[in-house]
Each structure stands twice: as C-alpha cells, then as structure tokens.
C-alpha cells in the first residue's frame, strides 16, 4: 500500500514513515526538504499519485495568528484537492486534544479550521487528537519562565510520548476510516506543574516551579481540564519516567556506565 506522510521528516513524521516502511508499505515522506510543499502545492500531485492513504502531521513554522491560519487553511485545502484527484481512500490528520475548547488561541482556531476542512472534504477521514507531547515540556518550561522561576497554572495534564503518537497514527492509517475524532493520550494524568517539575529535576535544571492561580495556556484563558480528554481516549503505554530515563543525559550516562 502507498501512503503519503505530509510532514514526513519531522518529530512525528519520521518515526511514522519508518514504522510503516517496516510493515512493508511504500511510504512517501512529503515535506519541503524532500520537494513537496503542501502550502504552495509544489510536488503534491506527483507525491500523491497512486496513494491509498495520506497522513498530515505537518505543523506551522510560525504560530502568529494570521500565519498559522494561513498555513493550515491553505495546506489542508491543497492536500485534500490532491488526495481527491489521486483517488485517496483515507485522509488522516493529526490535531490536538481539546482543540474545540481552546478557541481563545489563534493556533487552535487554525487547527479547528484544519479539522473542519478534512471532515467536510467528502473523503473518508480520521482526525487524531493527541495530548501534548513529552517533548514539548521544554517549550512549556521556557515559555513560562520568569526571573524567579517557572510560573505554571495548575491545569490537568496527560502528556504522551511522540513515538506513541506515531505508532497510533500508523495503526489508524491502515484501519478503516473512523469518519470522526479519535483522542489519544499518555497513561498518566497529573498537573502541568508536576510534569514540568519532574522534567526539570531529571535534567538538574535549577529553575523552580511557582504554581499560579491563573488558567492560562500560552496567553489563552482555558478551563482546568481543557488539555485532557473529555471522554473515551486511546491510552498509549509509555510512562513519563521511562521516557525521562531514555532521554535525560544523566540517566543515559548512568546506563552506559553500568553497561561498561
């Protein structure tokens, strides 16, 4: 089976492409670096020829309101048009848990527009909403850092390993289209502050956590549970401590020393 992964050289796309190839599929990793640009349309027709499934895991280079809306609106419209022309039987798009509850944010307004375009395309589809990636914790810590620490709201959080998102996308891509939304999350729920504190501690980062009463997510006021699944979700297996051990330099060095 031929599958096209839009954004196939990024954090989610690269392991997704590798996994699908390991399963014996012909996979095109479509990104500007491989000559395929969804926003301009360059290379899309050739990439999509003969494809059965297209999986869009692309992300905008700028999160400014107008730029991110333009990226998802134009890129998604071009992907759908190329998929329709090629006779693609399944369109899969990666989105974010709580997108419809995070509309105070320009980024999530753009993601909801992407979802709308896919769902109204007339093509069989699956929308996969994932919680925040473990790999995003560094960005969260930096984004909330003030002079005296990392000022974080007490929001519910259920993050997931990026590799688990890739695995779920691969599974859903070769299954029958859901023609709806599938939520996917990590196995543990806590507060954003707890996860970021653990990440800082594992890296011996001296910044300390200051828990605030604000309900703010990168400038958007949200509810306590806006970032976690509101109902049934696919729960993936990688626990946060296992991921930390695998990616933290101190843990890696300790493992290497033991092996020696």
Explain what this protein looks like in three dimensions:
This protein has 260 residues and is α/β, with parallel strands linked by helices. The chain has one domain (2-259): Rossmann fold (3-Layer(aba) Sandwich), CATH 3.40.50. It is 38% helix and 20% strand. The protein has helices at 13-22, 44-48, 65-86, 106-119, 137-143, 162-173, 192-202, 240-247, 249-259, and strands spanning 2-6, 26-30, 53-56, 90-96, 125-130, 145-146, 149-153, 156-157, 181-185, 190-191, 209-212, 216-217, 220-221, 234-235. The strands form four sheets. A seven-stranded parallel beta sheet has the order 2-1-3-4-5-9-14, with helices on both faces. It has a three-stranded mixed beta sheet with strand order 6-7-11. A two-stranded antiparallel ribbon has the order 8-10. The longest helix has 22 residues, at 65-86. It starts with a strand and ends with a helix. Residues 251-260 have low confidence and may be disordered.
| Derived structural class | alpha/beta
In angstroms, what is the radius of gyration? 19 Å
Low-confidence parts lasting 5 or more residues at pLDDT below 50? 251-260
Class in CATH? Alpha Beta
> Total helix count?
9
- H-E order: EHEHEHEHEHEEEHEEHEEEEHH
Biggest β-sheet strands, sense, barrel:
7 strands, parallel
- Estimate the strand proportion: 15-25%
What would the average pLDDT be, to the nearest integer?
Answer: 93
Fraction of helical residues: 25-40%
CATH architecture classification name:
3-Layer(aba) Sandwich
């Amino acid at each position: 089976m031929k599958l096209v992964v839009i954004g196939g050289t990024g954090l989610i796309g690269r392991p997704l492409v590798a996994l699908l190839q390991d399963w014996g599929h012909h996979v095109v990793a479509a990104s500007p670096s491989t000559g395929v640009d969804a926003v301009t349309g360059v290379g899309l027709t050739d990439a999509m020829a003969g494809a059965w499934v297209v999986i869009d895991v692309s992300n905008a280079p700028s999160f400014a309101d107008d730029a991110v809306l333009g990226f998802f609106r134009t890129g998604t419209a071009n992907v759908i048009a190329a998929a329709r022309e090629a006779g693609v039987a399944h369109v899969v798009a990666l989105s974010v848990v709580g997108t419809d509850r995070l509309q105070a944010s320009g980024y999530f307004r753009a993601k909801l527009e992407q979802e709308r375009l896919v769902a109204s395309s007339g093509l069989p589809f699956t929308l996969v909403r994932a919680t925040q990636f473990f790999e995003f914790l560094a960005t969260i810590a930096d984004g909330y850092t003030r002079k005296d620490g990392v000022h974080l709201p007490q929001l519910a959080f259920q993050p997931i390993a990026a590799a688990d998102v890739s695995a779920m996308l691969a599974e859903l891509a070769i299954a029958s289209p859901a023609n709806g939304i599938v939520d996917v999350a990590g196995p543990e729920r806590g507060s954003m502050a707890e996860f970021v504190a653990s990440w800082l501690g594992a890296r011996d980062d001296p910044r300390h956590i200051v828990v605030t009463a604000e309900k703010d997510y990168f400038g958007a006021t949200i509810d306590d549970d806006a970032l976690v699944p509101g109902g049934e979700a696919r729960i993936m297996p990688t626990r946060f401590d296992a991921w930390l051990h695998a990616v933290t330099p101190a843990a890696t060095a300790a493992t290497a020393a033991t092996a020696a």
